[in-house]
Amino acid sequence: MTTDIVTYEIVRSSLYAIAREMKIAMMRTAGSPLMHASGDSSAAIFDADMQLVAQGNDIPTMMGSAVISTKVSVEAIGKSNLEPGDVIVSNDVYLGGGNHQPDVQFTRPVFVGSEIVAFVMTRGHWTDIGGQSPGSYTVSTWDVFAEGLRIPPVRLYRGDKPVRDVLEILSRNSRNADELLLDIQAQYAGTFVGDRRLVSLAEKYGVQALRSTMARSLDHSEKLIRQAILAIPDGEYEAEETLDPIEAPGWKGESPLLKVKVTVAGDGITFDYTGTGPQVRGGINCPLSVTCNSTWFTVKAITDVSIPINQGCYRPVTIVAPEGSVLNCQYPASVVSGNTETSPRVIDLLLKALSAAVPDRVVGQSNCCSGAGIFSGRETDAGRLRRTGREFVTMHDVHAGGMGARADKDGISGVRVYVGNAGSQPVELIEQGYPMMVEEWSLVPDTGGAGRFRGGLASRRTYRVGYDEATFTVSAERGRSAPQGQFGGLPGAPFACQVARPDGSVTPVAAKGGQTVVHRGDRVSIQPAGSGGYGDPLERPRAAVEADVLDGYVTAAAAARDHRWSDDGSPGGTAAGRELGARR
Amino acid sequence: MKRIGIDVGGTFTDVVLIDDATGRVWSTKVPTTPRDRVVGALEGFRKILDVSQSHSGEIGFLGHGTTMATNMVVEGKGAPTALVTTRGFRDILELRRASRHDRADLYDLSFANPRPLVERRWRLEVTERLRFDGAVETPLDLGQVRDLAAQIAASDVEAVAVVFLHAHVNPAHERAAVEELRRLLPDRFVCASHEVNPEPMEYERASSTVINAMLGPVCGRYIRRLGGALEEHGFRGTLMFMQSNGGLAAPALVADRPLVLLESGPAGGVSAAIRTCERSEIPNAILGDMGGTTFDVSLIRDYRPEVRGKSLLHSYVVRSPTIDIDSVGAGGGSIAWIDAGGGLRIGPESAGADPGPACYGRGGTEPTVTDCNLVLGYVDAGSFLGGEFRLDEAAAHRAVEERLAKPLGLSVQDAAQAVRAIANALMAQAIRIMTVERGYDPREFSYICYGGAGPVHALDLAEAMGIGRVIIPPLPGLFSAFGMTVADQQYDYQASLERTLADLRDGAVAASFADLETLGTAEMRRAGLDPGAVRTVRRADCRYVGQPDVITVDLAEGPDDPRDAIGRAFEEAHLRLWNFTSPDKAIVIANVRIQLVAPTGWRGQAAPVAASAPAVAGRRRVRFAEGDADLDVFQRAAIPVGGRIQGPSVIEEPSTCIVLKASQTAVVDRNMNLVIELAA
């Protein structure tokens, strides 16, 4: 018994440590800033039946969907056809169970002797996989083919040697072949490290101990999640919301309905998306793997985050999503921003439904976007061209809005939320690496919804284009639907983007528009949505309102409007008012 | 001459005194006085003089380490600070990288965000802008700098950090701004990012600079007050401070750059270990420091500590050369608990020093690692901390029984055994991260352990890792304080280069190193050191074009143009770490670094113990996994050089104890280390 307890805990904690180590290996060797500086990558370990047993503290969007894609990848090749040192590559949502085309998964069987004891996977966001626009991240795509190369599950490494033919096809279909080769090696390095560590773990404690730990670990998390669901009041909780439409010339501009009925019954929970609108043209659809991921994320978030995360957490969850709907789209619907924009909107929808069940665990609605902004064109700096040898360069950055207020504290400003967590690029690295300058990166006052607790603010990044000519695409949500508050909290500001030309003209850019062409001297600013407040703004303590005004998170005018805060700067006024008066 | 080392920790202030002439060593512990740490440090100074019957005039040297800076950052108690940035970028400190901080669980919607180090009202902007290559895009508006100075002068802000974009490439604007601010604000602490951390990436540089600024006024006062108070007590020797890089530095330099104090305490232990390695001719060692709340691992390779340029402190980024230390929450005070699914877990909660483990008898009811060690006989109730207070065995037994054994359906001993095994595994994981993940094989290292609880777990841990030799130095419980007396002075300088090997002109790298040496040598002269006696270590931070992270390579003395050597060393390291190289990718030298080392630390021989033969001092029951055994207990102080203790037995000393199994033999080497060779 003692040995059992001890071995279990040692092997269990080792699995999580190995997943973390895989991610580190990947980040430290990757070529594209998106993977190394922003950390848009993840790693996980699966048992021999392709059940997810351990993951690092990684981007959730990549993890839930890996539950589906790992199984599909392995089954496509056939488990019995796999040999040591094989690595399967895949990205396709329809052929490989992926989440969206730019996220490419490497799956590797781990052998002890002739037996597969586990699988490891690494997943990275590739900055360009071809398709309609540079950076492969525009939503005005007609179908999945317009989104870039479709990679079905095929072997990219055999016996730890790259399969050159496949590698050639992959790299020749990227506008960014140079960084991509490093990224591929990095993802491979992650699987290699995971393989090595698991084999030595199995050698030390025995394959049987590894197998039983994995099984017990899944059961263990399932048991904990069931206990937590049991504590949620039984009942049916419903909500609906409308997605922002695609706004490109000549497009229909459909705004699909998102609808859910959550049924909590004992220690099980069902999410029924029946009534959700049909899939639409344009990359805002979710394949089932993305809808599952949003749902699973929410379950974990409203139960107990300290429960070790693995596939066992998802066993008590039933998901019903009608085929052909925007939340279970079918071939050949395009999907790119389903994963980064629609997915967080689904979470906001679920939190809205569940606010009646677990009011203290939901948050004001959030910015719900990656705000992926991409500039691509010909290099203009001769010195840099000599150094890097890159004639065409693509700058890919994500942008940060607000996270909604919580039941006991303010929201968070300028942050990636929910299933996304890739960070934005350092200004100095952008300017060193691309013909771009950043003129401003700051928080925007009054973008966080007022409430007893205030929503987080949006940030705004303004670029000055240094390319002679470049394409610009941006992908976001909440250009139309502002993030709402909870329990009386006010909404935050919506997404805003514009191009200001040197001739003084200013063109707004839609959250889900097409491709824009920009030129040297144009100023492009990207500002994701803010977020909603929590509770009645009139209940916010005066000291907190004053501190916000002094710090410029909230203007005096907005404080007067939302909190009935007044101060004329007279000697009898408040400290904040006096200080503001002194500065004027 | 006599030397004193004072290490001010969170709970205790450890003090040692060494007499150069005789090699005799004295030690003592006094409580730390968090409200005013000078009081505790002085008490330690007085007490060690007393214990050693010395007078203050005899003390030629005092080395000092303190956790003060770390605590200030963790508790948010730095000086009120203003940040002055390039217009448009005041929020870089709050926005960081826009991703959630490293300690937030990504599924957690209610995580707390770390407080920005500077309130937004004191994040100020001036008009100026440089391009990435250092060319001026918009000139600095000094008038605006003066206006800000007036605003700061009228406030309680005590420190100002100036961070302009690309200042690591061209510091001209920052220089002009800080010159003006220092002129107009002579009583405030002002520092610029190019002085503190001349490296690219604005958030990381700003964070380091702001932390330096917020520490500046408080650390400066502490340094001056301690110096003054020691002088009042008749101290006329040299006072030095321990830095994160493992070396000592003069008070004036530390007062300008208090950032270097952040890992001051742990660095002392590593310095002491380096000396141990040198004397015993052990080039490679893993160091394990097990205290109350954490187990800290670091590495010595080729008699040098592994150093890193960037660390996270309480989720704040600090870029400053720091001994690479990895911590896991498996200290003596870490709490063992059963989760809702019936799994046995350890930490990260710790009972700390107050109430402390259940056996401290101060009201703690949760079973800790120390409680389990007591139950099993690995720790003795009567001789813990030199017998200063008796441990409560019944309380430990009760905590383990009620919280662990009963729910698990195990005997108290089995439950305690399980906790010990899991704690060992967590520590082994930390050692593995330190070695295997860096491409080293732990079996090629010796294991040096210290901290009160370090030796208690050392042998099991070494066995699990396949390590062949364990070394327990004298005074393991005061090892960091000891390190303050044996450490050398060490000064780090760095410059940003950001050029590919092919792009660098002939001699350019050598010229950069030479510039740094000129700068460093001048500072050494000012600190009263003979530049002739100073050893220079040259390093370069390298990466492939496009990669994010640098690998720091050491350069041997050698050719005038070190480009080839740098390229080779980088590729070797890349292969070791990541199992591949990219021959078609250009290699970038991001930064060049030098470290000037003045060998001023004590290198004498500790006086051997006068004892002739070890005698059995008692018996103790230890509960091994294989069964109970009544073992002979030896006092370490009574074992002479060359003395051998055959296991199974127990070796007891004031700060810790070691349990030898039947197959193990401990030998005292000529440097007074206990050395245990383990069978492969």
TrEMBL record, chain A:
Residues 4-537 form the Hydantoinase B/oxoprolinase domain. It comes from the Bacteria. One of its GO terms (cellular component) is cytosol. Residues 560-584 are annotated as: Disordered. InterPro entries: Hydantoinase_B (IPR003692), Oxoprolinase-like (IPR045079). Pfam families: Hydantoinase_B (PF02538). GO terms for molecular function: 5-oxoprolinase (ATP-hydrolyzing) activity. GO terms for biological process: glutathione metabolic process. This is Hydantoinase B/oxoprolinase family protein. It comes from Lichenibacterium ramalinae. The lineage of its organism: Bacteria, Pseudomonadati, Pseudomonadota, Alphaproteobacteria, Hyphomicrobiales.
UniProtKB/TrEMBL annotation, chain B:
Residues 3-183 form the Hydantoinase/oxoprolinase N-terminal domain. Residues 509-671 form the Acetophenone carboxylase-like C-terminal domain. Residues 205-491 form the Hydantoinase A/oxoprolinase domain. One of its GO terms (molecular function) is 5-oxoprolinase (ATP-hydrolyzing) activity. It holds the Pfam family Hydant_A_N. GO terms for cellular component: cytosol. One of its GO terms (biological process) is glutathione metabolic process. It comes from the Bacteria. PANTHER family: 5-OXOPROLINASE RELATED, HYPOTHETICAL 5-OXOPROLINASE (EUROFUNG)-RELATED. This is Hydantoinase/oxoprolinase family protein. It comes from Lichenibacterium ramalinae.
